[in-house]
Design brief:
Helices cover 39% and strands 21% of the residues. By secondary structure, the protein is an alpha+beta fold. The strands form 2 sheets. The chain has a 5-stranded mixed beta sheet.
Length: 241
């Protein structure tokens, strides 16, 4: 006799940003799923064109404070994680910068390279190669502390912009009715895998680091993230495209 296997889905931090701004979802982001395990997390990088006069995050903030609304920043679209992260940073820094939404990171990165936009907060996989090749200058990471993905960069929090920390994350969810013993077993096995040397090396190459959690911790994290992003969306008037 065959037994029904629990349905699993791998998703990212866009799950919580989407839930924060979309009222027409066909599911409840908290009640319709049972979080199993977080896989990894990684920083976004605050970047500027290589010809930019800003050499540090302090330089950028000082100019933006003295010239409100004169700097702009690109994103992969309204309501994207880099949109949220940039608004969180600008609020913490007390600056006003103008949002320029693009349809994806490719066009936004191209315009950063060409100097058409002043700032781009981007994921490590999408921008780090440009930083390492010297085509883009990175000023900071968005995580609470320095990241092993780019250890030479200060974090926004450590630079004095309290409440600005944000990061990308990836995790596994199961259907809401999945029995807890199955969730616990999956959590244990997944945590073993993500903490293995091979997976640590893989994640680092991809701009992330392992982030094992108990299923209950992951559930609380997701619920808190959705509420946090709802507040940011309301304050910055972020709406879904």
């Amino acid at each position: 006799m065959l037994t029904k296997r629990p349905a699993l889905v791998v998703l990212s931090s866009t799950f919580t940003t989407g839930a924060a701004i979309r009222s027409n979802l066909q599911y409840d982001a908290v009640k319709s799923f049972k979080p199993v395990a977080m896989l990894a997390k990684g920083p976004l990088l605050v970047t500027v064109p290589v010809a930019s006069p800003f050499k540090t995050i302090g330089d950028l903030v000082a100019y933006a404070k003295a010239n409100p609304g004169k700097l702009n920043y690109g994103t992969s679209g309204s309501g994207s994680i880099n949109h949220f992260a940039t608004e969180l940073f600008s609020d913490a820094a007390g600056i006003k910068i103008v949002h320029v939404p693009y349809k994806g990171m490719g066009p936004a990165t191209n315009d950063l390279l060409g100097g058409q936009i002043d700032i781009l907060v981007a994921s490590a996989p999408s921008i780090l190669s440009q930083v390492k090749s010297g085509r883009v200058r990175a000023l900071a990471v968005t995580t609470a502390t320095r990241s092993p993905v780019a250890p030479e960069l200060p974090s926004l929090e450590q630079s004095g912009y309290k409440g600005s920390a944000s990061e990308l994350w990836w995790g596994v969810l199961a259907a809401a009715g999945t029995p807890q013993p199955i969730v616990d077993r999956l959590n244990m096995e997944i945590n073993k895998i993500v903490e293995s040397p091979q997976m640590k090396e893989f994640f680092l190459r991809e701009g992330a680091e392992p982030a094992p959690m108990k299923s209950a911790e992951f559930a609380a994290f997701i619920a808190a993230e959705i509420e946090r992003w709802k507040k940011v969306a309301k304050a910055a008037d972020i709406k879904a495209e």
